[in-house]
Design brief:
Number of strands: 12
Largest sheet: 7 strands, parallel
Order of helices and strands: EHEHEHEHEHHHEHEHEHEHEHEEH
Shape: globular
Strand content: 15-25%
Structural class: alpha/beta
Radius of gyration: 21 Å
Helix content: 25-40%
Number of helices: 13
Distance between the termini: 21 Å
């Protein structure tokens, strides 16, 4: 009798999340949950690797693929941290989990947009430190999303979910993507295509939803920030490397833009001397936009369907 095909999943799962995986796991498949450090050894006897996986050495991938490994299934939509060149050398397919976290990330992006426009983090801090009305005065001007222009950079699954959720907010939505949508989809979403420079100049809130690669690294740089409105906010829930953080810190410090909402940074976690940590006009979350309780069944369903 042939052995059961084995799925190795990393990192270690919370018991409640593990129960979701067990409930969706295809029958007659073994499921091993291991720590990230144990992945190189575990995949030598695995048919499938699934999870939030970081870099794996090329020789490890080649060895595992030569033995049993058939697929690497990433649980995230991003693939920039995985060793794609090593997977190519091993002739090993790699799949991403696009769409599973689109709703949660879209919601998080809008939350950061509103938080930055209304200085939510500064107001919260003021109340906690005994400044009631003084907190509002210190925060400065707050702004409504109503009647504003929202610029979406990248109109993939997440960008489209942002547009859908802003559909009833009485905002103008412009977008930039190297691959323009069809006229029918633009009409359905209520969005208008513009070039990136025009988007940056016209938008009151700019939200980024593109992958990180050689062509998009520092897509938002000092020049990009220089053309944004002084009352505009920048939101990034994609990858930290899309933004030149030194340039962003300078723009925020000098009040050349109103604020920023960031779920991602180039170094995660950031060093203690990171230039954005001491600024009162930036709200930070710890790369937490994607993993919601509701998104895990979608992630596992996609993962197991590909397997």
């Amino acid at each position: 009798m042939l052995p059961e095909p084995t799925i190795v999943f990393a990192p270690l799962l919370d018991p409640d999340v593990r129960a979701i995986a067990d409930g969706l796991r295809p029958p007659h498949f073994a499921f091993r949950n291991v720590a990230l450090n144990d992945v190189p050894d575990a995949i030598q006897a695995a048919d499938f690797l699934c999870g939030f996986i970081g870099p794996i050495d090329t020789d490890v991938l080649v060895s595992a693929a030569a033995t049993r490994l058939k697929l690497v299934q990433l649980m995230s939509a991003g693939y920039d941290r995985f060793n794609l060149e090593g997977a190519r050398a091993a002739r090993l397919p790699v799949s991403v989990n696009g769409g599973a976290n689109a709703i949660s990330v879209a919601e998080h992006a809008i939350m950061l947009m509103l938080s930055a426009l209304k200085h939510l983090h500064a107001l919260d801090d003021g109340v906690r430190h005994g400044r009631w009305r003084g907190a509002a005065a210190a925060a400065g001007r707050v702004h409504e999303l109503f009647g504003s222009t929202v610029g979406i950079v990248g109109m993939g699954r997440i960008g489209r979910e942002v547009a859908k959720r802003l559909g009833g907010w009485n905002v103008r939505i412009v977008y930039y993507d190297p691959f323009r949508l069809s006229a029918d989809i633009e009409q359905q979403l209520g969005v208008r295509y513009v070039e990136l420079d025009q988007l940056l100049r016209s938008a009151d809130a700019v939200t980024i939803h593109v992958p990180l690669n050689a062509s998009t690294r520092h897509l938002i740089d000092a020049e990009s920030l220089s053309v944004m409105k002084p009352s505009a906010v920048l939101v990034n829930t994609a990858r930290g490397g899309l933004v030149d953080e030194e340039a962003l810190a300078a723009a925020l410090r000098e009040r050349r833009i109103l604020g920023a909402g960031l779920d991602v940074l180039s170094l995660e976690p950031p060093p203690a001397d990171h230039p954005l940590l001491d600024l009162s006009n930036v709200v930070l979350t710890p790369h937490s936009a994607g993993p919601t309780w509701e998104s895990f069944p979608r992630r596992f369903a996609n993962c197991f369907a590909n397997i």
